[in-house]
Design a protein that fits this description.
disordered N terminus; 264 residues; alpha/beta; two-stranded antiparallel sheet
């Protein structure tokens, strides 16, 4: 579904950190912001979706207060539909020199039956990702690519199985070509699910009495993936040691909250 320009603007402003809008331009730029462009695995969830949790909701727990997170990830979007709906433009209207644009798409790019979302890994997917890279760089911000976090899928022998086809490889190749930092969350999450095993991973995904969701996370899963993201941001020197915190600390599930849905 396409959004009007006004709807996109309202959505963009809703994702701006409180400190950004309340303290003035100079102070906000000093604090610097990490923008997330992505899909439902990263997105903000609301009370009507609890306990489903996007990893972007947990990322601020691992960053110092002067590194704000503006989570623009939205359920069901691909690298293409996010652009077509004006959501990338909304970010680029706000992003400033020194900010970061963290891009994770792939889950919905894979939907071959949906022309509004489908991209082909080695052509249109890479073409779309270049628009995020070029847009951020043109505004003095730093683009960062993150391969899609893996779904919970195991074979009959109990081995965690990759589900994203060529999309992670296509993103890795593009990152090398463009000289962009790559967070290989697909590989890291697959290794984590393998370590945890078939039964233990159920505690990280949105498994409830009425739902068995092997794509979306509950609070422990979102916290675990956000920890992977924060560690990779530090390892690739996208962030400095002073920018991160609690990388090895226990994060209480109670820190996750689901606000009431925004009024229509």
């Amino acid at each position: 579904m396409s959004l009007t320009r006004r709807q996109v603007t309202v959505a963009a402003m809703a994702a701006v950190p409180v400190a950004f809008s309340a303290t003035g331009t100079a102070h906000a730029r000093e604090q610097r912001t990490l923008y997330i462009a992505g899909d439902s695995t990263a997105a903000q969830k609301y009370a009507d979706a609890a306990p489903e949790t996007g990893w972007g909701m947990a990322l601020p727990f691992f960053l110092h207060k002067d590194r704000r997170v503006a989570n623009h990830a939205v359920n069901g979007r691909s690298s293409k539909s996010f652009i077509d709906e004006g959501r990338l433009d909304a970010i680029l209207a706000l992003i400033r020199p020194g900010d970061l644009l963290l891009v994770q798409f792939g889950h919905n790019d894979e939907k071959t039956a949906d022309p509004a979302r489908y991209t082909e890994p080695w052509t249109t997917y890479q073409d779309c990702l270049r628009r995020y890279i070029d847009g951020a760089r043109a505004r003095g911000a730093r683009p960062v690519l993150a391969t899609s976090v893996e779904r919970r899928k195991f074979d009959a022998s109990g081995n965690a199985v990759p589900t994203h086809g060529d999309y992670p490889a296509a993103m890795r190749a593009l990152a090398t070509e463009e000289g962009v930092a790559l967070l290989d969350i697909q590989a890291l999450s697959l290794a984590l699910w393998q370590k945890l095993g078939v039964e233990e991973t159920k505690r990280y995904f949105n498994w409830t009495a009425t739902e068995q969701d092997n794509t979306h996370f509950n609070p422990p899963g979102a916290i675990a993936v956000a920890r992977l993201v924060a560690r990779e941001l530090l390892r690739h020197r996208v962030l400095a040691p002073r920018d991160v915190r609690r990388l090895d600390a226990e994060i209480p599930e109670s820190w996750i909250t689901w606000p009431a849905p925004a009024a229509a």
